[in-house]
Amino acid sequence: MSALKKEAGGDVLMAEMLALGRAAKAASAKLALAPREKKDMALKAMAAEIRVQAPKILSANEKDMAAAKARGLSAALLDRLLLDGKRIEGMAKGLEEVAQLPDPVGRSLGAWDRPNGLKIERVAVPLGVIGIIYESRPNVTADAAGLCLKSGNAAILRGGSESAHSAAAILDCLQEGLCAVGLPKAAVQRLPTTDRAAVGIMLGLTEYIDLIIPRGGKGLIERVAAESRIPVLKHLDGICHTYVDRAADPEMARRIVLNAKMRRTGICGATETLLIDRPALAFAKPILDDLIKAGCEVRGDAEIQALDRRVTAATDLDWDTEYLDAIISVRVVDGVTEAMQHIARHSSHHTEAIITADTTTAARFLNEVDSGIVIWNSSTQFADGGEFGMGAEIGISTGKLHARGPVGAEQLTSYKYVVRGDGQVRP
């Protein structure tokens, strides 16, 4: 049965979703033509409103946290859900940083002249309406809205039910910022319910939504990919690896590994598997000791277990697990070739890092590892659009179409060809 037939039949949820889609489509037409100055004014107004309404946002987040604890959510998910003064200020600053970025709309991506005198230019344009489905982290509400606005797109947001109160409070601030500068309130909307049926309807709104971006666990991504009739930009799980090469500086390796795993264990850029070159076992014990002292559970192969009795045995499942928790799996490999083979088998193509002083080995790793982000001598926790200078990100794309790695404002545009002539006709 079509969407319109369902609406005629009195399906209230369908009617609400169709109204949402129509409003977003109308708003996207206005945003596509909005000058940079107006978009940037709106972003700054959004940031100011978030600061003013911080107590309201914190109060809403307390309700979400209480409900999440009652449901028995894991420590990692609770960390993702939690808002405090620092994280609220981070949302506001992120919007202001997006405002400082160049306008991605209208960029000339290439221009050339043809022998017949035609002048051809490829120009960046908005995608239109972007549907974003995400879990837990309420700050994604601000990040996604800000990037969509900067790139001239309307946004329809569906956060996880666990963050419903927080997301609603943040959305109020965003819409106040839009209205303050005369941009349509419908430029940023959220689904009117936490009912999972609304997601199913959203994935079929081909007339109104141009791209779906799911950001969350494997179950969410698989459902969206299977059900969506709209193109999907996947943001899959982060099974990230750090490889400690035989030529690594021991002290550098200690600092990087500890940060890559334990700075924040619940983010997609956290290292989940540590690969250690066999000759590097000579300085691996302090690395393990640092992790364990920091409260990390270490699961390792036989050689790693032999280094420290506190290490438990890793199973085959561990190499394919995104823990999002203070747990790491550790394996010994024979050189960079075996490390890359392990990554090819088990990675989610998110972020991989190598620690080495050998430039030739590093070059092989950076060139041959097929992931959205590859890092030399630094922490995987830098896998973040803000750290890349993008102001914020909607997520890390683990696919290859049409964007890969951190998805910022530039990645939320497409292009069109503009052809200028002076009377040419085709023979």
SS summary, helix count: 15
How many domains would you count in the coordinates?
Answer: 2
Structural class: alpha/beta
**Quaternary organisation:** single chain
The tally of strands reads 16
> CATH class of the largest domain, anyone?
Alpha Beta
Helix content: 40-55%
CATH superfamily of the largest domain: Aldehyde Dehydrogenase, Chain A, domain 1
What distance separates the N and C termini? 48 Å
Radius of gyration computed on alpha carbons: 24 Å
Rounded average pLDDT: 94
Q: Profile the largest sheet.
A: 7 strands, parallel
Classify the fold: give the CATH topology of the largest domain: Aldehyde Dehydrogenase, Chain A, domain 1
Low-confidence stretches: 1-10
Strand order of the largest sheet: 10-9-11-8-7-12-13
Q: What global shape is seen? A: globular
CATH-scheme architecture of the largest domain? 3-Layer(aba) Sandwich
Commentary on this structure:
The protein is of the alpha/beta class. It folds into two domains: 3-235 and 407-419, Aldehyde Dehydrogenase, Chain A, domain 1; 240-382, 3-Layer(aba) Sandwich (Aldehyde Dehydrogenase, Chain A, domain 2). Helix content is 42%, strand content 19%. It has helices at residues 3-8, 12-33, 36-52, 54-70, 75-81, 85-100, 139-150, 164-180, 196-202, 218-227, 250-262, 285-293, 302-307, 335-346, 359-368; strands at 108-113, 119-126, 129-134, 154-158, 188-190, 211-215, 240-244, 271-277, 297-300, 312-313, 327-333, 351-355, 373-376, 396-397, 405-406, 413-420. The chain has a seven-stranded parallel sheet with strand order 10-9-11-8-7-12-13, with helices on both faces. Strand 3, helix 7 (139-150) and strand 4 form a beta-alpha-beta unit. Helix 7 (139-150) packs parallel to helix 8. The radius of gyration is 24 Å and the shape is globular.
